[in-house]
Amino acid sequence: MTEAAIESLTEEPERPRRRILSWKVSEGFVAALPIIILLFIGFIGPMALVLIYSFLERGSFSIPGPPSLENYIDIVEQDFYISFAWSLFLAFISVVILLVVCYPLAVALRRIKGRRAHLLTLLIVAPLFVAENIRLQGWVLFFDKSGFLDGALKVVTGLETGSLVNNVPAIVFGICYIYLPFMLFPILLGLGNVPREAREAAYDLGGSRWRVFRDIELPLAMPGILIGSLLCFVISLGAFNEAKFLGKGVIVTVAQDIESAFTFGQNWPRGSALSVLMIVLAGSAVWLAMRRVNLDRMLGKR
């Protein structure tokens, strides 16, 4: 048998595979086409408009116009960096607090089995069915002067707490309260990657509780911790209602500046420029975090 005949015999089985593969690719593309269209219309399109508006002249409401950098220059000259600094600080401190609170809570939930676990999960999820504004306003009524806490203490002990809102700790409390489930459930999923047998083997080999946590639990649960931290950081960076209801103007966040530019200020280009800078800031933080962590290796992929 000649070499050409041998090559033809070896190539024949590959042709049907290539056809099947190309058919599967085209079928997958057609199946994903609706979500691709929705992504362009609902996400990429609005983001493109925001980017275009950020380069228009101050006070412009129509897209046609010469590009300009005056909005970005105004942001630097008018000390908007203070709002960015406050937003970054609130996001960072909230993530740290949520990690400290949610990790032990997630460990406890993992150890609880049966109906009690379902009941506790339902209690944690239940506040998500109530609007964020209503929940925050409820805390204002609880902590404000002559509110529930102040009034109850005055009746029972004769002491007064005064107003516990209109300050930065109250804003941090509101952010942690609102976004606690977004940190807790990814950590729960991460702890699901920690086999019970690995813990038991480590204890049998004489490992201490700290050693087991550092060398086994933390590395295996790190994907959930990382996802929860990034998720809470990004959404806390755009926190708006917490500063509005619990802060009442004591500080101004970037989200408040953006809302003011689009509404009261009627300056869409400035609001768009602030939005672009916040998106770049959040995206850069996520990118830097993902660069330093090999998520594929953490998830066990090769």
Key phrases:
302 residues; MetI-like fold; 14 helices
pLDDT average, as an integer? 80
- Report the span from N to C terminus: 41 Å
The CATH topology of the largest domain is MetI-like fold
H/E topology pattern: HHHHHHHHHHHHHH
Structural class: mainly alpha
User: What is the number of independent domains?
Assistant: 2
Q: State the low-pLDDT regions, or none.
A: none
Counting DSSP H or I runs of 4 or more residues, the number of helices is 14
What is the total tally of β strands? 0
What is the CATH class designation of the largest domain? Mainly Alpha
Helix residue percentage = over 70%
- Gyration radius from CA atoms, angstroms: 27 Å
Major beta-sheet overview: none
Layout of SSEs?
Layout: H1 3-11, H2 14-53, H3 70-77, H4 81-111, H5 115-125, H6 132-143, H7 148-156, H8 168-191, H9 196-204, H10 209-237, H11 241-247, H12 254-262, H13 268-292, H14 295-298
Helix pairs in contact: 2-13, 3-13, 4-8, 4-10, 6-11, 8-10, 8-11, 9-10, 10-13, 12-13
Q: What does this entry show, briefly?
A:
By secondary structure, the protein is an all-alpha fold. It is 75% helix and 0% strand.
Structural commentary:
- By secondary structure, this protein is mostly helical.
- It has two domains: 38 residues, no CATH class; 221 residues, MetI-like (MetI-like fold, Orthogonal Bundle).
- The protein is 75% helix and 0% strand.
- The chain contains 14 helices and no strands.
- Helix 2 crosses helix 13, helix 6 packs parallel to helix 11 and helix 9 runs antiparallel to helix 10.
- The longest helix is centred in the first third of the chain and has 40 residues.
- It is globular.
- The model has no long low-confidence stretch (mean pLDDT 80).
